[in-house]
Amino acid sequence: MEELSIETVAAMLIDRFSSVELTEDTSVLDRNVAISLYYLFKDTFLLALDLLDEKRIIACYWEPAFNQQLQSQRQIYYVFDAVDDQDTTSIFKKNQKHQYEVRTSAWYCSCPEFIFSAFNNDYDITWDRTIMIPGGFWGGCILGHPIPICKHLLACVLIGRGLWIRRNVLEKLISKEELIFRSIQ
């Protein structure tokens, strides 16, 4: 039997977790999947779930695509760590603090936590982009080192994988001009 990498196991667990909504009637197996994700990602997993529960993520997309894989490449998430008021009808308000841009297709988040985990001086990261699978996880393959991740990126990966999780996300079609404007703010 072939030995699975930690990246493969994490991707399988995320797919399983995202496919079944946790309720009181959830099977022991599915509860164990959630526990396994907590074991792998520690508090980052719980903080990502908090962001989803508090509906602090906006999924923006432009030019609707014909297939799901292309659509995920045309999607950017904006995650807000703090909001002065909880009025979700008005998005991108001035009183929203700590707005981070997340691109799951590029495995990127603009928050300091992600930057630190990706470019920590404790080790030298070796990226093998030849192994990269379009629409896959992790933005490439990191050989022998931890996967750079933050709560924002993990929450957005969960959104991209699970239909039941998307109920907690506001989706917005934006123009390319608005996308550029958001990027330079």
Give a written overview of the molecule.
It is a single chain. With 185 residues, the protein is an alpha+beta fold. It has one domain. 38% of the residues lie in helices and 17% in strands. It has seven helices and seven strands; from the N terminus they run H-H-H-E-H-E-E-E-H-E-E-H-E-H. The chain has a five-stranded mixed β-sheet. Strand 3 and strand 4 form a beta hairpin. The mean pLDDT is 77.
Shape: globular
The count of strands amounts to: 7
SS element count, helices: 7
In terms of structural class, how would the helical and strand content be classed? Answer: alpha+beta
Strand order of the largest sheet: 4-3-2-1-7
In percent terms, what proportion of residues is strand? 15-25%
Helix share, percent: 25-40%
Based on CA atoms alone, the radius of gyration comes out at 17 Å
SSE pattern, N- to C-terminal = HHHEHEEEHEEHEH
Concise account of the structure shown:
By secondary structure, the protein is of the alpha+beta class. The chain has helices spanning 6-19, 28-41, 43-53, 68-73, 112-118, 151-161, 176-183; strands at residues 57-61, 75-83, 96-103, 108-109, 127-128, 141-142, 170-173.
